[in-house]
Amino acid sequence: TTLLYTIKFERMVAANTNPTMAEVLVKLFNEYCAKTPQKLKLIDAYLGYIMFTGIFQFIYCCLVGTFPFNAFLSGFISTVASFILGVCLRIQTNPANVTVFKDISVERAFADFVFAHCVLHLVVLNFIG
Amino acid sequence: LQHYFIQSNLRMRSVLVALAAITVALSLSPSDRLRISSYFDVSIDSLKTAYQVTVAKSILKEDVPKSICDHAENVQLTVSDLYFASHLSKILGCQIKLDGVEEFLRAEMAAEGASVNTMFKCITALINLDFEVDSSQNEQIAQRLKTEDTVLAYGLAYLSTASISEEIPKDLVESIEDIAHRADTVGKAMSFEGGLMETAMFLKGATVLSQKAEVAGLSAKMTQSFAHYILSNKEKSEKSDLFYTLIGIDALANSQHVPTSLLVVDNSAVISEESQNLKLSLVDPLGSPVAGSSAKIVSASRASGESIFSSGPMTGSDGSFEASATGLVRGIYKTELSFDLPAGYLSPDKTVIQVKCVVPVILKDTAFKLIDVEDNRVITTDDLSNAPLQVKVDMATRLIFDFNLWSNDGSDEVTLHQVFVRFTNVATKQHVYFIAQADLKKRYSIDLNFRTAASKSFGSMGGDYKVELIVGDATLPQAMTTDIATMTLELPESKEQIVDLSKKAKPEITHMFREPEKRPPQSISLLFTGLVFLPALILFIAWAKLGANISKMKLSVSSVGFHGGLLAIILIYINFFIGVNMFTTVKHLAVAAAITFLCGQRLLSSIAADKKEK
């Protein structure tokens, strides 16, 4: 699929027009694939998974109503909080931000991530009822 | 189970005593005797029943048909049967046609390890059948009492010793009071844990022994307390309960301190013109009058001071007393009495009785008026000499009814407790009541304005009404009802709802339980459950494609510990979700978290160290 997109982009460059929205997005995507370290891509995949889990739960709630409300809330907030923790981990382990997070090593960030998740899931499971 | 039985026994006895505290006279009234006697009029199906009926009837001093003796023919050579049969022989003179009775009983009595119960039955049987029992048997009884330290054993021991000895050992008599202290006191009543049978048999033993030793084993107070308990059982319906109640009553009637009770005879505490004498009876627990007793009226006055009986001795003697009323003035009189009793009889609990004097009243100076409110003229006025009147009223009418209640005992005008005017709707039978108020001159008056009363009190229901005056009071021989009028209430057709004043049941309220919330269909829920797992699947595929390097994971202690610990935490959470409570979860978590933390820290620092090396 990466090859396909590269071909498409080259065709567009050959057309030599002002970039459209689609062209911008494609360029963004290609830059992303090229420049992002593999570790961050793993985290991004994880974040995407969390996001879709949350979206599906929300659609279900919209469809069938909020009973039992606590179950919906705990599930949804679990995804939201997990997403946030994942973003935190990504920020802290991004090599581009090393100057900002001097004192926090990658391992420490990961340890924080794991610990926060343990606490989060305990609370979520308690609230889910 | 034993403990529960004792608890419930005590509770039962407390309830009994609580009930008894309200009403118990310490004696059997004539109706009580009839009732109890009827329970022993049953057909006799066994030797034991024959024994119970015979003993009960002899206590009540009633006759027993001689045909009961037929049951003595089926007697077997056992201690119980011989015990029962011996009573039939003693009381009715039945013959026991069995050989070897004396030898058998003596052998059983002298046997090694014979219980006090067995010894008692053998001794009683032998004595009833006119055989001699040596007083040396007392030692065996006393020996056995040392091991069988129950209240019932002592009671039976007293009975046995009393029947075979001439000289009663002093310590045995003194033990009566000691054993009596084992009883529980609930209110005024005292009873043993073992209940009615134990208390009755103990009482019987104590009184028989005291009688023989001519010393009171039980104090007067204890006797009175036991009496309260025994007599609280007289309303029972089980034959065995009534049997032991009679045994207890018989013991009380023969004790050194006989409790007495005051009964009012023939409902004579109501003095009226027809019945001017108060008749009292002082009886013992069995209901027999106390011979050699005399009574005196200390005072018999009502709140305002007048007396109905003159103070002084009452006529009569030997338990039946009478006093004549000195006058007939209506009222309720508190009559205090005092008694002179022969030795050995206790004064009754209740020495104050309420005597009421009833005198009828008549209506006097009645005035019945109907006034037209609009032009204030009097429509009707009558003195009820032509009662009942026929009147018509409508919304513009005012009804005024005045009267006096006249008492012939010299108090002239009186005010009484319940003076009502009642209107009864002839068609629907509904009643409307109005209370007549008396003014300072004791003139009663009812003032009804139908403009307001028609809707407020009569529910806007027109029609024919019967008007009556109802007078009631404790000092009237019976309530007085006088027909005053038949009233036709004319009301316009009202637009408002006619209230149905009759008392009917209201519509039933069915409790509506909260309806359970509507749940989505199962298929949709399952679909979304699957849908939620879908991104996870895609994640693993993406990770694989991106090349997550699982292979680079080292297999070391800390690695295993860390990943194992995380897995353990996940399992603990799943366990919590299934149903374990938070306390257990946190407990497990503390252990798992400690391991995970230690291993994790080691693992991550080793990774960091490795990275630094690179």
Describe the structure.
The complex is a heterodimer of chains A (129) and B (614). Chain A is an all-alpha fold and 129 residues long. Chain A has helices at 2-15, 21-35, 38-64, 69-93, 106-128. Chain A has 5 helices and no strands. In chain A, helix 1 (2-15) packs across helix 2 and helix 4 packs antiparallel against helix 5 (106-128). Chain A is flat. In chain B, strands 11, 12, 14, 15, 18 and 19 form a 6-stranded antiparallel beta sheet that branches. Chain B is 41% helix and 21% strand. The longest helix of chain B is centred in the last third of the chain and has 32 residues, at 582-613. The chains are: A mainly alpha (129), B alpha+beta (614).
Shape, principal axes of CA atoms of chain B: flat
- What is the terminal separation of chain B in angstroms? 79 Å
Q: Mind summarizing the main beta sheet of chain B?
A: 6 strands, antiparallel
Q: State the end-to-end CA separation of chain A.
A: 44 Å
Question: Any descriptors?
Answer:
heterodimer; A: 129 residues; mainly alpha; B: 614 residues; alpha+beta; six-stranded antiparallel sheet; five-stranded mixed sheet; 16 helices; flat
Tell me the layout of helices and strands:
The complex is a heterodimer of chains A (129) and B (614).
Chain A: H1 2-15, H2 21-35, H3 38-64, H4 69-93, H5 106-128
Helix pairs in contact in A: 1-2, 3-4, 4-5
Chain B: H1 2-23, H2 30-39, H3 47-59, H4 79-92, H5 101-110, H6 116-128, H7 137-147, H8 151-164, H9 170-180, E1 184-186, E2 189-191, H10 196-213, H11 220-232, H12 239-253, E3 261-264, E4 270-271, E5 277-283, E6 294-301, E7 312-313, E8 320-324, E9 331-340, E10 352-357, E11 361-372, E12 377-382, E13 389-394, E14 397-407, E15 412-413, E16 418-425, E17 431-435, E18 437-438, E19 443-449, H13 450-456, E20 463-472, E21 480-490, H14 522-546, H15 557-578, H16 582-613
Parallel strand pairs in B: 4-10, 13-21
Antiparallel strand pairs in B: 1-2, 3-5, 5-8, 6-7, 6-9, 9-10, 11-12, 11-14, 14-15, 14-19, 16-17, 16-20, 18-19, 20-21
Helix pairs in contact in B: 1-11, 3-4, 3-12, 4-6, 5-6, 6-8, 7-8, 8-10, 10-12, 11-12, 15-16
